[in-house]
Amino acid sequence: MSHSPSSHVSPASLDADGRLPSGPPPSEALTTRPASILSGVVAVLRGFWSLVTINRKVMVGSGIVGFFVLVALFGPLFIRQNPLKYTFDLIDPPSSAHWLGTNLGGQDLFSQLVVGTRASVFWAFFSGLLVLVISVTVGLVSGYFGGIVDDILSLLTSVFLVIPALPLAIVATQYFPRAEITIAVIVALTNWPWGARVLRAQTLSMRSREFVTAARAGGERTWRVIFSEILPNELSIVAASFITTTIQVLLAVAGLEFLGLGDSSIVSWGTMLNGAYTSSALILGAWWWFAPPGLCIALLGAGLALLNFGIDEFADPRLRRERPAKAAQKKAVA
Amino acid sequence: MRHLIRRLSIYLLAIWAAITLNFFLPRLAPGNPAELYFYRLETHGSINPAALKALEIEFGLNTTDSLWVQYLKYLNNLIHGNLGISITFFPSSVGDIIAQNIRWTLVLLTMSVLISFTLGTLIGVFLAWRRASALDTALSSVMMFLYSILYPWLAFMALYFLAFSLGWFPIQDAYDAATVTPGWNLDFLLNAADHAFLPALTIVVSTVAGWMLTMRNSMITTLSEDYVLMAKAKGLTSRRVMFAYAARNAILPSVTGFAITLGGIVGGSLLVEIIFNYPGVGFSLFQGIQNDDFALTQGILLLVIVAIIIMNLIADLLYAVLDPRAGQERSM
Fold first, then answer.
1. 10 Å Cβ neighbour count for A153?
2. Out of A77-86, A154-163, A200-209, B226-235, least confident range
3. In whole angstroms, what is the distance from residue A82 CA to residue A135 CA?
4. Domain with B268 in it
5. Most buried among A224, B39, B75, B227, using CB within 10 Å?
6. Is residue B215 part of a domain?
7. What whole-number distance in Å separates Cα of residue A190 and Cα of residue A156?
8. What pLDDT, in 10s, does the model give residues A20-46?
C-alpha cells in the first residue's frame, strides 16, 4: 500500500549523477541514485505484487479487473475502423473479417465491444468514485460528530436506503438530457447510503480510540482528525464499499442504457444491448449481438466480486479456506 | 416496540420524501418537459376538465399559485388516489392501469423472491457446513459470476435459447388470451404458470447468489462460535446443530440485508418484465418511458416505493421475532 517517496521522481528527470538538473536544496528523496530509485520501484512493484497475490480470490479478481482496465485504456487504439461505420454486411455471424459478426446496420460488433469497454469501465468507476466521496463524507462526519448532526445524517441515510435506486433513477433520467454524466450523477445520488452506513458505524467505534483523542489533544483541526487520522484506518472498509458500489453502479448504468435512457451516440456495453433489444436481434437470431456485452458486464462484475470476497477473507481469518490438517492444528492450539 | 416506532417513522418519512421528489423533479428539469407532455395530451382530444385540472396541478402548469399552494394541492390529489392520466393508454387513468397490472408483478415477484431466498439460504448453509469441499469451490465460483449478472441480459439469453430457439416456453404475455379465460380454473392457472416460469427463473437465478454468499459467510462465522462447538460436543445430530443452532443465528444478516437488497431486486425484475413483454408494472413503466408519459412513470415509481416500504416493514417484524435483542438495543 505505501509508496516510497523515491517512486515519484522519474529516472528521466535526473542527470548523470542522479541529481535533479537545477537545484532545490537536496533532500533525501532527491539525492537518491538511480540504482536505489530502481530498487524503490522494485520494492513498490513487489509490494503491489504481494498485495495482489494475498490469496487466490484477490489474484483472479484483480487479473480480470486489470484485463478490462487495460482494454479500456489501450483497446480502442488497436481498432482501426470506426465502430459506428455502416457497411453492407448486415447481420453477419462471427467470421474472420468480423470477429463478433455485424449488426443490422452492418457495424462491426467486435470493434464496438472493444471501444464500448472504455465508456462502460470509465463510467462505472467514475460513478463508483462519486458514490465513494458522498458516502465517506456522510459516514465519517456523522460518525465523528454524533449528536444532532449524526441524527440528521443517519435519518437521511435510512430514508435513502429504503428508496429503490433503479426505479428512481429511471424516472429522474427521463427529465434530464440523455447524457452519460446525467446517469452517473443520478446513480451516485441514489447509491450512497449503504457505504455511508457502514462507515458511520466504523467511525463511531474509532472516535473514542486513543490516537484520535491524542490528535485532538494535540490541537489538530477537526477536518484533519477526520480525514487524515480516522480515514486511513478505515481504508479496507472504504475499498470494500467502493468495490460493491462499483458492481451496483456498473449494473445500474448498463440497465439505464439498456432502457434507452443513455446517450445513444456513445458506444458502450449498455447501448449495444439497447440496440440489440430495440432492433429485435432476438427474432433475427443474432445472438452474437446481445451475448458478448452482457457477458463482459458479468465477467467484470465477477472479477470485482472476487476481489471483494478475497479482501473479506483476508480481513476475517475465519472465512479463510483451511485444509483439514491445518484446521486440526489450529483447533489443537486453541 | 420503540424500535418499531422508530422504523415506522423512517418509512413514513421515506414515503413523504419520495412524494416530494416526485413533485419537484418535473419542476427542476431543464426545458420544461411537462409542458410538452401537456401539449401532447391535449392533442389526444377531449379530456374530462377535472382530470385536466389535476394534471395541471401535478406538473405546475397554467397556474399562478405559489409553489407551496401547488404542493399542497398535489398532496391533496394523491390522498384522493388521483395519479393523473396516461398518454400511453389514453384516456385511462394511471391508477386504473397500475391496478390492472400490479397483480402480475406481485405474484411473479413474491414467488421468485421467496424461492430464491429459501434456495440461496439453504445452499449457503450446506456449503458453509461442507466448506472447502469440491462442491463448495465449484458452486461458490459459479455464484460469484451470477452475483453480478445483468438481469435483463439473462432474461434476453433465456428468452432466446429456451423460448425462441428451443420453443419450450411462450415468448410473451402472462397468459394465452386465445385459449384460456382468466379465472380460478386449472387451464388458466397452468397456462399462467407456464408463462411466468421463465421470468421467475431469470429473477431466481440472478438473485440466488446474493442470498447464498451472504448466508455462507455468516454461517462460517457462526460455526466457529462456542455454542456451536458446545452443541456438537453434546452429541446432537449434525442436522440439529446445523439448523437449530448455527443457521438460526446466521440468518440474521440476511434478514437485515433484505431491506437493502430488495430495492435492487424489484428494480431488476421490472427490467425482466420488459424483456418478456410480461404485462406487469415494469412493462408499463417501459411504455411510459418510451412515450415520455410522465404521469404514468411517476405513479409507478410511487407505487414501487410504497411496496418496498411495506416489504421492509414485514422484514422488520420478522427480525424482531428472530432476534429478541432487536427490540432492546438502540439501533438505526
1. 19
2. A77-86
3. 39
4. 102-283
5. B75
6. yes
7. 12
8. 444 444 444 445 566 778 888 888 888
Is A214's Cβ below 8 Å from some Cβ in B? no
B221–A319 C-beta distance less than 8 A: yes
Angle, helices B94-129 vs B281-290, to 10°: value is 120
The predicted-structure confidence for A74-105, as pLDDT tens digits, reads as follows 878 877 777 777 776 766 677 776 666 777 76
B33-57 in b/e burial notation, b at 16+ Cβ within 10 A? bbeebbeebeeeeeeeeeebebbbb
Partner-chain residue, chosen from B260, B290, B297, that has the shortest CB–CB distance to A161: B260
Region for B90 from its dihedrals, namely left if φ exceeds 0, alpha if ψ lies in -120 to 50, beta otherwise = beta
pTM as predicted = 0.77
ipTM of the complex: 0.77
The mean per-residue pLDDT over the stretch A106-115 comes to: 79
Spatial contact of A237 and A315, defined as CB atoms under 8 Å apart: no
Number of domains in chain A: 1
**How many angstroms separate the CA of residue B170 from the nearest CA in chain A?**
14
The string of DSSP codes covering A64-128 is HHHHHHHHHHHHHHH--S-TT---S-TTPPS-SSSTT-B-TT--BHHHHHHHHHHHHHHHHHHHH
Residue B55 in any domain: the answer is no
Whether residue A45 lies inside any domain: the answer is no
**Beta carbons of A162 and B14 less than 8 Å apart:** yes
pLDDT at A28: 47
Among the listed residues A91, A138, A291, A242, the one whose alpha carbon sits nearest the alpha carbon of residue B160: A291
Distances (CA, A) of B191 to A126, B135, B275: 46, 36, 19
Domain contains A142? yes
How do residues A151-175 score in pLDDT, each as one tens digit? 888 888 888 888 887 888 888 877 7
The answer to whether position A169 is within a domain reads yes
DSSP character string of B282-308: HHHHHHHHHTT-HHHHHHHHHHHHHHH
- Is residue A216 one of the residues assigned to a domain? yes
Domain CATH code at residue B142: 1.10.3720.10
Q: CB B144 to CB A306 under 8 A?
A: yes
Instruction: Give how many domains chain B has, as a whole number.
Output: 1
What are the start-end ranges of the H helices in A146-192? Answer: 147-162, 165-175, 180-191
Q: Which domain, by its residues, includes A235?
A: 64-78+99-316
**Section A326-332 average pLDDT:** 42
Is the CB of residue B284 less than 8 Å away from at least one CB of chain A?
Answer: no
By CB neighbour count within 10 A (0-12 exposed, 13-18 middle, 19+ buried), where does B199 fall? Answer: buried
Per the domain annotation, does B135 fall within a domain?
yes
CATH classification of the domain holding A103? 1.10.3720.10
Model pLDDT for residues A230-264, shown as the tens digit of each residue: 888 888 788 888 888 888 888 888 888 888 887 77
Cβ–Cβ under 8 Å, residues B330 and B6: no
B36 close contact with A: CB closer than 8 A: no
B317, B109 in Cβ contact below 8 A? no
What's the rounded Cα separation, in Å, for the pair A72 and A160? Answer: 32
- Mutation to test the A interface, candidates B142, B153, B225, B290, most A Cβ within 10 Å: B153
